[in-house]
Amino acid sequence: MRFVIVTGMSGAGKSTALKMLEDVGYFCVDNLPVPLIPKMADLLRVPGTEINKAALGVDIRSGQNFRELEKVLDELDITGLRYEILFLESSDNVLVKRYKETRRFHPLSGSDSRVDQGIQRERGQLKFLKKRADYLIDTSHMLTRELKAELNKIFVQNKEYKNLYISVLSFGFKYGIPNDADLVFDVRFLPNPYYIEELRSKSGNDREVREYVMNNDKAEEFLEKLVDMVEFLIPNYIVEGKTQLVIGIGCTGGKHRSVTLANELFEQLKDTDVYGIRIEHRDIEKDAITKAR
User: Fold this and answer.
1) Suppose 108 and one of 32, 96, 118, 228 were both cysteines; which one would form an S-S bond, judging by CB atoms 3.0 to 4.6 Å apart?
2) Is 20 annotated as a binding residue?
3) Which amino acids does the record list as binding GTP (predicted)?
4) Which of 131, 155, 179 is the last residue of a domain?
5) According to the annotation, is 71 in a ligand binding site?
């Protein structure tokens, strides 16, 4: 019997997680009143039951009863019921943006206060759950399909999960350094394909640009040192409990050199089950948009 409690910040992807688990055969219940959780657990332990995988969505929508959840979990521990807690997290800025896009009120902000105030109240109430979580996934930079892939690793393939998700992000300095970048590397010291007429309209995703950027000793040495440093940092970040690592690689416009080096770093790091990883090219199309205006 596998019993998963899905929880976390409102807007971080709990509904997506429950839907994915349902699609792979989990019996799912969302927003069950907290006092009924022990009864559900008892039903799951009945000999001969056809349910061998269940997921329960729990969050602050439970209202006053939510305060009883810690006591209920302690009682489940005493009875010996094994359960896993999946906690979905996201940054404040991303959560505010998601609420604005959907034009919904935060459950703890109501109609008379700001979304960010509701988010801070929710963080306080969920603090004990986050500490008890078996799996902590930060969805700030994740696409829906990327979240589903991570959940598939944990709950279908049963791979060991270390809770760290890496975003390799290329960007252009003239459009600003990413606010959420943990590590920032400047590759403007490399030869710039922009000044080569036949390469100007292409990007670091094109073979010709990649070959131009990487066809010198400086680029190869930089990549080697960068990979070595990141591979040193990753296990230390995991031990520290870090869940989200954003590695920013910047050039002038975010189209040629940074894209090339970001792709190269991603290729070096992607073949692992120790952490999740994605790549994003933030500014790759901005030059074309600016010129079109």
Assistant:
1) 118
2) no
3) 59-62
4) 155
5) no
For residue 277, give its domain range: 165-292
Number of domains in the chain: 2
Query: Is 114 annotated as a binding-site member?
Result: no
Shared-domain flag, residues 145 and 170: no
Any binding-site annotation on 62? yes
Is 61 within any annotated ligand binding site? Answer: yes
Q: Do 53 and 191 share a domain, yes or no?
A: no
59 assigned ligand-binding residue: yes
pLDDT in tens, 37-61: 888 888 877 776 777 889 999 888 7
Clarify whether residues 85 and 188 are in a common domain. no
Q: Is 8 annotated as a binding residue?
A: yes
SS3 per-residue string spanning the chain: CEEEEEEECCCCCHHHHHHHHHHCCCEEEECCCHHHHHHHHHHHCCCCCCCCEEEEECCHHHHHHHHHHHHHHHHHHHHCCCCEEEEEECCHHHHHHHHHHHCCCCCCCCCCCCHHHHHHHHHHHHHHHHHHCCEEEECCCCCHHHHHHHHHHHHCCCCCCCCCEEEEEEEEHHHCCCCCCCEEEECCCCCCHHHCHHHHCCCCCCHHHHHHHHCCHHHHHHHHHHHHHHHHHHHHHHHHCCCEEEEEEEECCCCCHHHHHHHHHHHHHCCCCCCEEEEEECCCCHHHHHHHC
- Asked if residue 109 and residue 43 are part of one domain, the reply reads yes
Full-model pTM:
0.69
pLDDT band at 162 (very low <50, low <70, confident <90, very high): low
pLDDT, tens only, 74-96: 988 888 888 999 999 998 888 88
Residue 258 marked in a binding site: no
Instruction: Choose the final residue of a domain: 115, 137, 155.
Output: 155
Is 25 marked as binding a ligand?
no
pLDDT given at position 50: 74
208 and 285 together in one domain: yes
Residue 203 in marked binding region: no
